[in-house]
Design brief:
8 strands, alpha/beta, eight-stranded mixed sheet, single chain, Rossmann fold, globular, about 40% helix, about 290 residues
Length: about 290
């Protein structure tokens, strides 16, 4: 145990952990370097809303039904640059820098419930009764919380790489151990971000069961979130579909943007359905005389 006031010395493992987390956060916020529109730093579209004690930064693009984009841990609006342009052809995109991320203001404490409250307050200010929501990773967690805390605001919800607990039942065990060392990070904002991953969220299955809006749970087949956990989320939500993208890691918006956009459009724009193979078999069995 370190004595109070003693200098924290970074061990080789902690240095490796710092480098690993830096790379992870860089991947999450990656947006490419050839975009013509400076998504995430666009004076023409960017605005601030005063919500819950901070200035929340957001940008709006396109027309149509409102679609809220929520980025992952350490990311920002720019991290979804590869998706904003094609999606803005069909939707009004409301891209948000979450609290303590990007150009938004920060606070001493940080948790997903606060982030969800910020999104709710922004939609109130924009006079949007309900919206489609797509959230990746931490943004997906915020989306799930929106689903049961502010249900009227959520028309349909897609989450990718979202978890409901911060332990090895949900995440790859090695990643769980790495983020536990967040206090070794000298950058206080990065420490805040990694602490969020290490200690949150804590969402119970009964809370997921309260979500009434249709939800699509997306996972890479090699996600940081264990596939069994994504299936658990899918099964806990009454009106849900499951989408597993092949040859994909946690970073599906960057690895498979076109495939992800295709499924977003399929889910948002078409009638929601929960087809049952068992029900189909019952009908066929009755028709051919297996049952009465």
């Amino acid at each position: 145990m370190r004595r109070p006031g003693s200098t924290l010395l970074l061990s080789s493992n902690n240095k490796n952990m710092k480098l690993f987390i830096t790379l992870i956060l860089a991947l999450i916020s990656f947006s490419g370097f050839t975009q013509k529109i400076p998504y995430g730093n666009n004076p023409k579209n960017g605005k601030y809303a005063r919500v819950n004690g901070i200035n929340l930064y957001y940008e709006i693009y396109g027309n149509g039904a409102p679609l809220v984009l929520l980025h992952g841990n350490g990311g920002s609006i720019g991290g979804r640059a590869n998706m904003i342009a094609p999606l803005s052809e069909k939707y009004q995109i409301i891209a948000i820098d979450s609290r303590c991320h990007g150009k938004s203001g920060c606070s001493k404490e940080l948790n997903y419930e606060m982030m969800a409250a910020d999104v709710n307050a922004l939609l109130d200010q924009l006079k949007i009764d309900s919206a489609f929501i797509y959230g990746h990773s931490d943004g997906g967690i915020v989306g799930l919380i929106m689903g049961y805390t502010y249900p009227v605001k959520v028309k349909r919800l897609v989450v990718s790489g979202a978890n409901t607990v911060p332990d090895a039942t949900a995440l790859e065990p090695e990643l769980v151990e790495l983020v536990k060392n967040y206090k070794a990070l000298p950058d206080t904002l990065m420490q805040k971000h990694v602490r969020l991953m290490a200690e949150h969220p804590h969402i119970a299955d009964f809370q997921l069961a309260q979500i009434k809006a249709p939800v699509m749970v997306v996972s890479g087949d090699r996600d940081a979130v264990q596939l069994e956990h994504s299936i658990r989320i899918f099964r806990a939500i009454p009106n849900s579909n499951l989408c597993v993208l092949p040859a994909s890691s946690h970073f599906v918006p960057d690895e498979k943007p076109n495939l992800l956009i295709y499924w977003l459009n399929e889910f948002y724009l078409k009638k929601f359905s929960k087809p049952s193979t068992v029900e189909w078999a019952r009908q066929v069995a009755k028709q051919i005389g297996l049952t009465k």
